[in-house]
Amino acid sequence: MAQGSRLDIPPIRPDGLQLDEPRERQRRYWRVQRIAWWAFGGVMLLAILGLTGSGGMFHKQTVDFAAASVEIPRVTRWEGSDDLSITFREPGDSHEITMSQPFFDRFMIERIQPEPDQTVLRPAAQAMTFPAADAPPHEVKFDIRAMHFGWTGFDMTIAGETRRINLVVLP
Description:
The chain crosses the membrane at residues 35-58. Residues 1-20 are annotated as: Disordered. Keywords: Membrane, Transmembrane, Transmembrane helix. The chain is of the alpha+beta class. It folds into 2 domains: 23-52; 60-170, Sandwich (Immunoglobulin-like), CATH 2.60.40. It has helices at 24-49, 101-106, and strands at 60-64, 68-73, 75-77, 81-88, 94-100, 107-113, 118-122, 125-131, 138-146, 150-158, 161-170. The strands form 2 sheets. A 6-stranded mixed beta sheet has the order 3-11-10-5-8-7. It has a 5-stranded antiparallel beta sheet with strand order 1-2-4-9-6. A hairpin with a 2-residue loop joins strand 7 (118-122) and strand 8 (125-131). The longest helix has 26 residues, at 24-49. It is rod-shaped. The model has no long low-confidence stretch (mean pLDDT 89).
């Protein structure tokens, strides 16, 4: 600085700062930042509620049939293990479950407990028969693993009653 020169002091703005720069760009940045924090908080809340798979009160859905109820994930993870449980409430010597082909296109069955007595291939579906003894309830549990991600819908038939089951597989 040359001797005798003076620095120009910027005026004090109405918000109390003594800056000589436009603040509109910074305000826009802060606004976007606040919106992003709210979005992150929303994603965290969805995860806590179970809408991203693996736990939470919305993780599972129950599909009721006249003779049974099916508990299946509403949201599952790609290549993650999950389970599908079927509880038969009606007495009988055996129980039959028929699942349409989209289920088998999307999921791999790792284990069925108890194993079916008989498996029959039907057009665009597979039917499994499970022997039953004693009084109900009888439970069948499938350990499944999603092999592809996306929206999945398939039909399940129990005792002649068919229901559409929809679920999401997240990457």
